[in-house]
Design brief:
Layout: H1 2-13, H2 32-56, H3 60-73, H4 78-91, H5 94-107, H6 112-124, H7 128-140, H8 147-160, H9 164-177, H10 182-195, H11 198-208, H12 216-228, H13 232-245, H14 250-257
């Protein structure tokens, strides 16, 4: 449960547009009304950055309080609404989350980050199949700087909808854009492993674990792939990483019991 919560935080944070939190530079003299508006926006941006920091630490109530202060300083700003939607999702308050995501989209209907957020909300709200068109809309936006994120999310939602073929296609599109993406490769390794295609599973598992701190799930899968592929030296190397990084994990305990099919 703890790992799921941390994964949800990381996944949600990847949706949030951080660039919009910085106010544009202004030069020259300003009239009092403009100066007051600029000051209000700076305060809103500061509270929104604090909200993000607290959200990252799973301190969701404090994050929600900071978003409220951001909206008090600059009402109806879409970044704050989208951030609040993510926090409401973390609380399990789906109806409120959906309302915030829709309001953010009304302000900026073509913003890819908001499209992605709303699609993820639909997926988590039991509408996995319906979410895919929203992910596709995000991916098609030429101003989206990280379309592989939406493709990965679409792949996860396709799996949730029971369509492994579509999921594989989404993850493959994601690695075409970002070949070293750990999440895409981990998901593809899992799909190929379940299909019994150990050569492709081995290829993607190697990419998924070629990061400074590989995810425990990716490491465990890579160990199982190495075992099925009869690569004892690779298995030993991966096991050393698992023991060093996650000595108290359920995966390491499973390895010690020889429980590779749990």
């Amino acid at each position: 449960m703890i790992r799921y919560a941390r994964g949800l935080i990381a996944l949600s944070l990847s949706f949030l547009l951080l660039a919009a939190c910085a106010s544009p530079q202004r030069s020259g003299a300003q009239d009092p009304a403009s100066a007051a508006a600029s000051d209000a926006q700076r305060r809103a941006d500061a509270h929104l950055q604090l909200a993000l920091a607290y959200y990252q630490q799973a301190q969701w109530q404090i994050a929600l309080d900071e978003v409220a202060l951001a909206l008090q300083a600059a009402p109806r700003q879409s970044d704050a609404l989208s951030m609040r939607g993510l926090i409401y999702m973390a609380f399990g308050r789906q109806e409120l989350a959906g309302a915030d995501f829709r309001e953010a989209l009304r302000s900026a209907p073509d913003r890819p980050e908001y499209l992605n957020n709303y699609a993820w909300y639909l997926c988590q709200d039991g509408q996995a199949q319906a979410s895919l068109q929203w992910f596709e809309r995000a991916v098609r936006r030429p101003d989206y700087r990280s379309p592989e994120k939406a493709l990965n999310n679409a792949g996860s939602c396709s799996l949730k909808a029971g369509d492994a073929v579509a999921a594989k296609a989404y993850f493959l599109r994601a690695v075409e854009i970002q070949p070293a993406n750990a999440r895409s490769n981990a998901e593809l390794a899992k799909i190929y492993f379940n299909d019994g295609d150990y050569a492709r599973a081995r290829f993607h598992a190697a990419h998924a674990t070629a990061v400074a701190t590989p995810d425990v799930d990716a490491l465990w899968l890579a160990i199982k792939v190495a075992r099925k592929s009869d690569q004892p030296s690779t298995e030993t190397k991966l096991l050393a990483q698992l023991r060093r990084l996650y000595p108290d994990s359920a995966e390491y305990a499973a390895y010690q019991r020889g429980a590779f099919d749990e």
